[in-house]
Amino acid sequence: MFKRWMQAAAVCLLGVVMLGAGDPASRFNRLGHQMICVCSCGQILLECNHVGCPDSDRMIGELRQQVAGGGADTAIMNWFAAKYGPTVLAAPMRGGFDNVAWIAPMAVFLMATIGTGFLIRMWKLRSGARTPVSAAGAGGAGGDELRERIRRETEY
Q: What range does the domain containing 120 cover?
């Protein structure tokens, strides 16, 4: 039993080391790819490549300071959102009112699907209540007259 616990601990330690959980460079890279440059280019912060960008160098420097300060990822993202506005985030953070941005599209899709199904069912029930009219009409004799009239009207 002790051997299994040691193997599990070794796997966990290896996973943490391989994922770079303690590496500030990988954390910096991950956080930098979760933000948008505020110079209105619409690119990811670490990938902003337009010449003479007035904002990306300053923001990257601030990100380096925040990561070196050792704050939590959510605290760093909140700091940037407070300073530059929520548009600096590439994707809304989970929690609070931002959950609406994640839930609303799926809820609208589901409601539209259910509503369409309900509408189709109502149309089927409504059309099923009507009695279909045959081409022959009420009697068999009127059918020949109707066919002859259709033939005359559709000739070239």
A: 99-154
